[in-house]
Amino acid sequence: MSLHRRHLLTAIGAAALSPSLGFAATKKASAASGSYLTKPWTGPYGGVPPFDKVKIADFEPAYKVAMAEKRAELRAITVVRSVPTFANTIEAFERAGQAYDRLGNIYSIWDSNLSTTEFQAVSEKLSPVKAAFEDEINQNQPLFQRIAQVYDKRDSLALNPQQKRLLWKKYNKFVRNGAKLSKEDKARVADINKQLASLFDAFSKNLKHDEAQATFITKDDLDGLPDTFVASAATKAKAMGKDGLYAIQNTRSAMEPFLTFSTRRDLRQKIWSAYIMRGDNNDQWDNKKINSQILRLRAKRAKLLGYATHAHWRLEVAMAKTPENAMGLMEAVWGPAVNRVHEEVADMQAIADAEGKGVKIEAWDYRYYSEKVRKARYDLDEAALKPYLQLGRIQEAMFYCAGRMYGFSFEPVHDVPVFHPDVTTYKVLRDGKPVGLWYYDPYAREGKSSGAWEMEYQSQSGMRKSICICSNNCNFLKAEAGKPILISWIDATTMFHEFGHAIHALSSNVYYPSQAGTNTATDFVEFPSQLNEHWLPIPEVLEKFCVHAETGQPMPKDLQDKLAKSAKFNQGFDTVEYLADAMIDMAYHLAGDVDVDIGQFEKDYLAKINMPKEIVLRHRPTQFAHIFSSDDYSAGYYSYLWSDALVADVYEKFMAAGGPFAGTTAKDYFTHILSVGDTIPQDEAFRNLMGRDVNRDALMRLRGFA
Question: Are 376 and 644 in contact (CB under 8 A)?
């Protein structure tokens, strides 16, 4: 499951200038130090991030400048004696903090993509500082009082729907973050947030350390591995000072192909064990204590804020509304998914038994033997597909679909600075009109988070007259010079998924920046990205872009047919691996204010739900960055399933109309879903498209469980 990172920094504060909030009083940074990080961006396309100027040492003094500026802007809202209005309070608040937003976006890029030891030292200091200032804003009583006065007379104001939505969100955010609490309880919430920020930072640092490790194997250990994978592993080993060996890094992008193709069962177990034990090795990088502390602090905060649990607090503003609604959907899918796993294991065990090696299917065997089943049942294996999946051509396919469906075009540009030489940039137009910039960062590197994600550097906004600037970031290993990078079908699907987030951001057509693009409920934001995955297997796309790396011939029809027939293959594994994580995430956060032994909790809960022994959690707690590196997806990992229910329903609408390139469905989808951001409630946006609420039967059909 890829990680979509939305940096909604308008609402994130910085730290106060006082030493108590993290900045040493003896710090002698001038106001000009790092000012390029906070000033309005200059250059083409209305201004671009000054990546070529960034020095890590400038982040801390730049934060001092940006925070002082935001504080002054907020004070200007509250010191006026005029009656609070939508314009002088709500819109003024929406305009405030642009310097901090710009700085925060650049800082987040370094955090995700260039997290060196030097940066981590700065991050360790700044994380609690930023959290403290967020609370300073959330607990700004004069500001909240003015917002509340506007909110109280909302029915008498001539506001359009976007403005009504913005007013509600501003008011509700303050209330949900403790604006109505006593002074003492506000201080307690602020202290918890500060502690959590430090714990999130420590969790991420530990995980990045373990993911940077590698298992080194020799030439004698390569049986079954694809040539392209072997070449990448050799290149990685050389870069790590182990020339002549092969490095299997402790990341999913390395683990999955190794477990799929390696004939060495002992090495499959070794690579699998290293991967699933990230953050759980009882050493200085162990995350178990951090997991427990985060859960306890979240539970305490929720009680202070007036909620039964952290899960109830989080889901109040989601589409699901309550943990019970989210669990209801997950439990409806869990049983059929587990039954399918038992069927899949039986099929694999039959092949293993026929080999006569005494193999009993274990977790490190699942990918290897499922590939054998797929080949036997559909005459299709990953090795047959891979020559047709060139990284560059998949990128072209993404552009093609976005153009056919929504009128987008992508033109390479070389006049903007980038944060790493591997990054390429594109001017994005829709129907010939510039709408954004897209940065593409495909390769793994030291200090880069694992997985794949989308980031937004600048939101589209009519108020700020700004275009969308966003990126897609992946972790592919570079191939030998002059050779294409061949990727798996899963990786190609993930690229389409993350590009779906970018399309969502680039489609935005709103006035207020905090309502732009992907600034929607977590259980809705995955809807456009997951729907976008479905356009990769379209025959027209396969024929045009899935061409053989050596012959240049398009994927043959019989291979396309095999791919289509196998579309629901291994759905038991895929669903259970993900869904167990979504369910235990909710269970963690429904446990309440208790001390959780994270390892025992995992063991007990998986036994309770009858987790198949042949599968482990996709993300064990010590590596579950979605929910332990920030609050973003905490008690919210269910969102992918909730969104997929929307996806399945809309996908059937597309296909009934002749596919993504036929009829008016894409136009209607763009109008009602992609372009509206958070200007209306997400369930209303869905009804505007479909004329009704979601039909969840489509989800069961899509996964083959009907």
Answer: no
